[in-house]
């Protein structure tokens, strides 16, 4: 992957519905070349999907929280099977530290969040943090596009 490929990734991270023509213009390459590069990035798995950045708050999901839970290793796969079915769980990460899992969840009410946490405690002890506000993000990781050059003095 070279700097043009990284530039294409940056462009589509900022604007997922950008046209191939616009990608080509911004990268100073032809449209067919941009299309081929985009297809290669997709086939290599670097572009996993395209999606919309939905404002869930406007849809009534005002309670964003991080729920930490200490799941016993023996119950890990049962936990994964359970948590995959809960649509309010946006992310589930296996983590280090005092807890083994961290969940990012959205709910419309504190009552719904409370019920979820109560149900979750069948798998282990929990700790919940409710988000007051989000100062940064979510945002994509913008990739460095400059090629590293060998120092000519070497």
Characterize the structure shown.
- The chain is α+β, with helices and mostly antiparallel strands.
- The chain has five helices and four strands; from the N terminus they run H-H-H-E-H-E-E-H-E.
- It has helices spanning 3-14, 20-27, 31-43, 76-84, 110-120, and strands at 63-69, 89-94, 101-107, 126-130.
- It has a four-stranded antiparallel sheet with strand order 2-3-1-4, with helices on one face.
- A hairpin with a 6-residue loop joins strand 2 (89-94) and strand 3 (101-107).
- Helix 2 packs across helix 3 (31-43).
- The two termini are 25 Å apart.
**Gap between N and C termini:** 25 Å
Task: Provide a count of the helices.
Answer: 5
Principal-axis shape:
elongated
* Rounded average pLDDT: 94
Q: What can be said about the biggest beta sheet?
A: 4 strands, antiparallel
Poorly predicted runs of 5 or more residues: none
- Helices and strands, in N-to-C order? HHHEHEEHE
- How are the strands ordered across the major sheet? 2-3-1-4
Q: What fraction of the residues are assigned to beta strands by DSSP?
A: 15-25%
Structural class: alpha+beta
Percent helix range = 25-40%
Number of strands: 4
Rg, rounded, reads 21 Å
Give the assembly state of these chains. Answer: single chain
